[in-house]
Amino acid sequence: MEGLFSLLLLVLLSLVAVFFHLIRIYFNSPVDFSMDWNLFLSWIPLIAAFIANNLTKRFGDIPYTLIAISLFWLAFFPNAPYMVTDLAHLTVDYERDLTWHDTIMLFFYAEVSLFNGLVSLYWIHQAWRQVFTRRMSTVFFFLSLPLAGFGVYLGRVRRMNSWDIIHEPRLIFQSMLESLLDRTAWVFALEIGMLIGILYLVLWAIIRFRIRYTKKI
Which residue windows are transmembrane per the record (predicted)? Predict the structure, then answer.
């Protein structure tokens, strides 16, 4: 199955992140598993995109199935860049070794979570291009960026969760309407979307260069 090696590599990186957390637990008694939970949530859009990409390559034109998977993917995709905002929890004490450990640990969690999100975006984008027109897949791609940023805002500032779409749909809808009038929500959405877009562009350029270089050889 295409992408299996990438999944295994991301599993390894996730285990390294957990190892950093285990070191933190060993040297300090308070335990906070929210990072591990958030990292787990970043795997949900990755698995959804992995399935979508492989299904479209195997069965071809399956627009309704892909739309359903894409909506599920979009609901959980903001969980990937969400961990970047966990860096706000850092407390600085230059004389304390755990300060530097926490900095590296939180960055590593955020980095792995972002990798999950970027790879999932690449796979779902490939699935869109397989089923829909190039123009439509491009529109889907660019819409997903600020929507992901808006989702991060709802999670960090409004304290919403992805599964609230099922349990509290009215609350989600109300928070979305209120957020549309909030300037911070717009800035948050656009800047997170820009961050994802720039990082994705780097990933896409590396992959394309590798493919073209391999073909020349």
Answer: 7-27, 39-55, 62-84, 104-124, 136-154, 185-207
| Spatial distance between the Cα atoms of 55 and 58, rounded to a whole number of angstroms | 5
Q: pLDDT at position 210, please?
A: 64
Total tally of structural domains belonging to the chain: 1
- Residues 149-206 have pLDDT tens digits of 999 998 888 887 776 677 777 777 887 888 888 888 899 999 999 999 999 998 888 8
What is the distance between the alpha carbons of residues 201 and 102, in angstroms, rounded to a whole number?
29
What distance in Å separates the CA atoms of residue 69 and residue 104, rounded to the nearest whole number? Answer: 34
Contact 48, 55 (CB under 8 A): no
Q: Degrees (nearest 5) of the Cα angle 184, 106, 113?
A: 75
Which class for 129: exposed (0-12), middle (13-18), buried (19 or more C-beta within 10 A)? middle
The first and second tokens of residue 109, run together, are 């969690």
Identify the domain containing residue 182 by its residue range: 4-216
Rg of the chain on CA atoms, in Å: 18
Q: According to the model, what pLDDT value does residue 64 have? A: 93
- Say what the pLDDT of residue 204 is: 83
* DSSP sequence for 32-92: -THHHHHHHHHHHHHHHHHHHHHHHHHH---HHHHHHHHHHHHHHTTHHHHGGGGGGG---
Closest CA to 43 of 116, 109, 118, 99: 116
Q: Helices (DSSP H) in the chain: which residue ranges?
A: 4-27, 34-59, 63-76, 79-82, 97-131, 134-156, 164-167, 169-179, 183-216
Q: Looking at residue 211, what is its pLDDT?
A: 58
**pLDDT (0 to 100) of residue 217:** 56
